[in-house]
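Pipeline run #58 for the internal structure catalog. This entry was flagged by the ingest filter as a single-chain record with no existing model, so it goes straight to prediction. Upstream metadata was stripped on purpose; only the residue string is passed forward. Reviewer on rotation: M.T. Logging verbosity set to normal.
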Amino acid sequence: MLRIWKATINSRNGMAFAFRSEQAIREEVFALILSLPVAWFVAATAMRAVELVCAVAFVLVVELLNTAIEKLADRLTMDHDKQIGRVKDMGSAAVGVALLMAGAFWIIAIIERLGFL
């Protein structure tokens, strides 16, 4: 139980630091909070609502990983390094793909709600 408690504290600390230091994290937390009630209006079923919220949560997960990569890369060197730049770009691309996926889920759910699917 002690290990689980310590892991929970570490997770809370990581989220708090990311929230304080990254605008993108704050925006995605806001989107996640907003998605909770909106998903219930958009979704045709309870399961679809859960899927919509999970899609937004997935974007937050990828953004947290991207932020961790960027913080680590900046810790290694603040000098311009081509390889580190590529790694940061790949992290950003992962966030972009996650956003496209979430957007597709929401668009499909809206089309489904409007009766076109």
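catalog note: The chain has four helices and no strands.
catalog note: Residues 32 and 56 are 6 Å apart (CA to CA).
status: ready for reviewer M.T.
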